[in-house]
Specification:
By secondary structure, this protein is α/β, with parallel strands linked by helices. It has 3 domains: about 5-50, Orthogonal Bundle (434 Repressor (Amino-terminal Domain)), CATH 1.10.260; about 60-155 and about 290-315, 3-Layer(aba) Sandwich (Rossmann fold), CATH 3.40.50; about 155-285, Rossmann fold, CATH 3.40.50.2300. The protein has helices at about 5-15, 20-25, 35-45, 50-60, 75-90, 105, 125-130, 155-165, 185-200, 215-230, 240-255, 290-305; strands at about 65-70, 95-100, 115, 135-140, 150-155, 175-180, 210, 235-240, 265, 285, 310-315, 320. It is elongated. The protein starts with 6 loop residues before the first helix and ends in an 8-residue tail after the last strand. Pfam families: LacI (PF00356), Peripla_BP_3 (PF13377).
Length: about 325
């Protein structure tokens, strides 16, 4: 593989010093117009691209933001990353997305800021890691108290209150809940909201009717297939849409119709990007565009020192998206 063109390569062909090349490429008026034009032509011919790392060492800003996510596979994760990348690109920043444990890379001083979304790690790990960083951080699915961290999270309660209320309007009364990983803030927060709502409004303890779907299709599909085969439940409350998709698939294979034989609700509104649900799923929308805008604006304002480094929590509004997956009285 050929190595990238360097300033020294351009300097040799132009008959000038690497410093002169650097000045010319950065538009320094001390370099004559003729010399600048010659250097730019050589750089173009050699397909020269400046090193982000080298630029960062000079300016102390790399113009690169790092994002930690749990997985690249989720439709919701993909839509969220795309929205954040678009917001950053419009402001002249690049995005690097990491989906595994790379603490050494995070600490390598390559990035101007860090975004964390639903990354699988304990709160204690994040508290220790984030507190030790000298860059601003935005937590999108967790709440930390570090001075350099802002928590910008969705208001799960707002949409879940509407979704939980549908149970009281349905004639499907055997309800179960598919939840997510124990170390997921959204999974545990959504579950706690549902537990409180059903206990207060329906006098139902949902604890015996909880099933671990890991926010994933396969385990939800497997559990739903077993539960539907015994007709144990007819209302499936899924705390994300991927698990709801697993219930849909299981119902289809057993000849059951969603919205008639069983009711299903989800959370995340992934059907907005990928219409995989038939009939349309009743779910909750996380307002991805507003969420991404708030995350990027907050982070870059702190990168530019337009906002003080202080801990704060902002909630992004959510709303229920009605569909045809619930059977009413």
């Amino acid at each position: 593989m050929n190595r990238p063109t360097s300033l020294t390569d351009i300097a040799k062909l132009a008959g000038v010093s690497p410093a002169t090349v650097s000045y010319a490429l950065n538009g320094n008026r001390k370099i004559s117009a003729d010399t600048t034009a010659r250097i730019l032509k050589i750089a173009q011919d050699l397909n020269y691209h400046p090193s982000k790392i080298a630029q960062g060492l000079r300016t102390r800003q790399s113009k690169i933001i790092c994002m930690l996510i749990s997985s690249f596979e989720s439709i919701f994760n993909g839509a969220l990353v795309e929205a954040i990348n678009k917001e950053l690109h419009e402001r002249g920043y690049a995005l690097v997305v990491i989906a595994n444990n790379s603490t050494e890379l995070i600490n390598a001083q390559l990035f101007d800021g860090l975004i964390v979304f639903n990354y699988t790690a304990s709160k204690a790990y994040f508290q220790k890691t984030v507190s030790g960083l000298n860059i601003p951080v935005v937590m999108m699915a967790n709440k930390l108290e570090a001075d350099n961290a802002a928590n910008i999270i969705i208001d799960n309660r707002q949409a879940l209150t509407s979704l939980c209320g549908l149970y009281g309007q349905s004639d499907h009364r055997q309800v179960c809940f598919f939840t997510g990983p124990e170390d997921s803030y959204n999974a545990q927060n959504r579950l706690a909201i549902c537990q409180d709502y059903f206990k207060e409004n329906y006098q139902i303890d949902i604890t015996p009717d909880l099933y671990q779907g890991h926010f994933d299709f396969a385990p939800a599909y497997k559990a739903a297939k077993q539960l539907l085969a015994t007709r144990q439940y007819n209302f499936f409350f899924c705390l994300n849409d991927v698990m709801a998709h697993g219930v849909y698939r299981a119902a289809e294979e057993l000849g059951l119709k969603v919205g008639q034989d069983i009711s299903v609700v989800g959370f995340d509104n992934i059907q907005a990007a990928n219409p995989i649900f038939e009939p349309k799923l009743t779910t909750a929308d996380a307002n991805i565009n507003l969420w991404s805008l708030e995350v990027v604006s907050n982070l870059l304002n702190r990168v530019a020192h337009k906002m003080p480094e202080k801990n704060q929590t902002t909630y992004i509004p959510t709303m229920m998206i009605p569909g045809d997956s619930v059977h009413f009285k």
